Amino acid sequence: MISPKILNPNSRIISHKSSNEICKLLSKQPLFWCLSHEQVLKLSCYSNLIRGKRGGVIYQSGDMCNHLYFVVYGTVKISISKESGIEKVIELVGENSFFGEAALLLKMPHQNMAQFVQDTLILKVASEGINEIFNKSQEFSIGLIDCLAYRQIKLMKSIERISIESALQRVANYLVDLSNESGDSLMSSIKLPANKSLVASFLCLAPETFSRVLKKLINLKLIKVENKEIKILDMKELIKKGM
Prior knowledge:
Largest sheet: 6 strands, mixed
Radius of gyration: 19 Å
Order of helices and strands: EEHHEEEEEEHEEHHHEHHEEH
CATH topology of the largest domain: Jelly Rolls
CATH class of the largest domain: Mainly Beta
Shape: globular
Helix content: 40-55%
């Protein structure tokens, strides 16, 4: 069996990882929880690790999709851009989440760009491995379809947010969503997945507008900003601000 390798975006080998270590990382991904040890071991033969630094490009729009990507730690920005230089962030992918599934399943080129937001480690699994598991495991297939359905709901929610919600509602709901995803209690501390400019772009807000809304929520004593963390002081009132 060939040992998977840690690669940077330019495919330069940094170090080696044993098959057992790759299996552990695969097993931590919720999408693969339904797989047996033997299936995970087989999948590790199709898997590599990419360690990237901020600004590094994983793939660009138009590149053929040959892998499904999982974030081990860090954050990946999914965006679309125009020749004029205008960029729209459509998703910020964090730990234990994956991306690239639509182009992979449809066997078509990527329609967006994926880029490292910070020092990040991602696990990429070749399409051959995903297709093999998809055809053999009904539970995995259903799980992947469930994930796609959830992504569709999130997309519709995002469209609703940027179309009809005020700046205050967008930010309040975004912070509530981050808290829900972290699984914290009502008195929770959350970290923004990227800098304020990228988060503002994701919410279709100007950076200064995003900062102004955060300051308003601070003055209302609904949140408290400590270094890179945002502490939610009153979840119930924050939820009301999003209505």
